[in-house]
Write a structure and sequence with these properties.
Elements (H helix, E strand, L loop, with lengths): L5 E3 L4 H9 L8 E5 L3 E2 L13 H10 L12 E3 L1 H5 L5 E4 L7 E3 L5 H19 L15 H11 L5 H16 L15 H19 L4 H16 L1 H13 L16 H8 L9 H28 L2 H17 L1 H9 L8 H20 L1
Parallel strand pairs: 2-5, 3-6
Antiparallel strand pairs: 1-6, 2-4
């Protein structure tokens, strides 16, 4: 089973899959053999996280609990499995040579459209009668049900990210402490959790031969997707569930003009994405930047470093990590810059929010 934009890169892939399908112990309960999706058009920088490393890392772990979910492409499936009449298991197999290759979107707009579609589909499963927490818990182990549920409900990650992107900077602006003081013994818990998680992620990337730049690109794209794809996926699914909209399918356009391809190869983001995606990103960036500058000035002036240090660090982390967005709004003049209309709309919205926060 292949997507129309993928092709077989190894003629022995069928034979490799048959090694599992013909295994006398595994075959009676095997539904399909899933290969990873690999892409021939990913640049060295991979600024859009097109390799989707975080997905295939999960899929390896799935092998220990009856295998991964069907990934839509790059698999050899048994016909009986399509009927859904038995409790099948799956296998994820990752040979050294990619068995299937395809094209991945190389501009921000198409990446966000594609991921919104994917996570809307997962959210539809989460809110259906086939939810892994309800339907799945009766037919599989608790561990497998929980892991499948993590995928199905993945879009709700937008909630904590929006809270961090809005509540923290506004409280920083108003001198409202949300974290323990530096002198408190409980303060160390927060930097420990943050640093340990990030250092663990960096360590995994480094031992796999990647760089710190890969870490920053993956972190940046996760934030961008959380504020756009996950939010709209959850919103659209909820609206569809109550009958306000109808489900639709928007195909991904993977054709790229020469200038857009050049930007991608240079490691520059193409911010010519749909306005509904760009306005929240730019608005929240301006909001955090302004709150940090104003809030830091007040902290230094009033001597509240002990109370507000951690709270000022979180917006700063987001500002530095997403600096390419500021470049797109202010510094860049090429085709991939943030459009003037998006920058103006975002500036107006963030100014209104800041003014309201200042007078309340």
């Amino acid at each position: 089973m292949l997507d129309c934009d993928m092709y077989c890169n190894d003629s022995t892939s069928a034979r490799q899959a048959m090694c599992f399908h013909l295994d006398h112990k595994l075959s009676p309960k095997l539904a399909f053999v899933q290969f990873p999706q690999r892409f021939y058009n990913i640049s060295v920088n991979d600024i859009y996280d097109g390799a989707m490393r975080f997905i295939w890392t999960k899929w390896k772990g799935f092998n220990g609990i009856r295998g991964p979910i069907l990934s839509g492409s790059g698999l050899y499936i048994k016909r009986e499995a399509l009927y859904g009449t038995h409790k099948f298991e799956q296998v994820y197999y990752e040979p050294s040579r990619p068995c299937f290759l395809g094209a991945t979107p190389i501009n921000l707009g198409e990446v966000l459209v594609q991921n919104t579609r994917w996570f809307m589909g997962l959210s539809q499963v989460a809110l259906s009668k086939f939810s892994p927490l309800v339907y799945g818990s009766l037919r599989m182990s608790i561990l497998q049900s929980m892991i499948y549920a993590e995928l199905a409900y993945y879009a709700i990650y937008f909630l904590p990210v929006y809270i961090l992107a809005i509540v923290l900077p506004l409280c920083l602006l108003r001198d409202i402490p949300l974290y323990p003081e530096v002198s408190s013994p409980f303060f160390l818990v927060f930097p420990f959790l943050f640093l340990s998680s990030q250092l663990k992620n960096m360590h995994e990337l480094l031992i796999l031969g990647h760089s710190i730049k890969t870490w920053s690109n993956e972190q940046r794209m996760w934030m961008i997707k959380s504020l756009t794809c996950y939010f709209f996926a959850a919103l659209n699914t909820s609206m569809e569930k109550i009958g306000l909209i109808k489900a639709s399918f928007v195909p991904t356009n993977k054709v790229m003009d020469d200038e857009g391809a050049k930007l991608y190869q240079m490691g520059k983001y193409n911010f010519q994405a749909p306005t509904p995606f760009m306005v929240p990103l730019c608005t929240l960036y301006i909001l955090n930047l302004a709150s940090f500058v104003i809030g830091l000035g007040r902290i230094l002036q009033n001597g509240k470093t002990n109370e507000m240090l951690m709270q000022s660090f979180v917006p700063l982390f987001g500002i530095l990590l997403n600096f390419p967005l500021l470049e797109g709004m202010v510094l860049r003049k090429d085709k991939g810059r943030v459009s003037t209309s998006v920058s103006l709309i975002s500036a107006v919205i963030s100014s209104i929010v800041l003014a309201y926060a200042a007078i309340c």
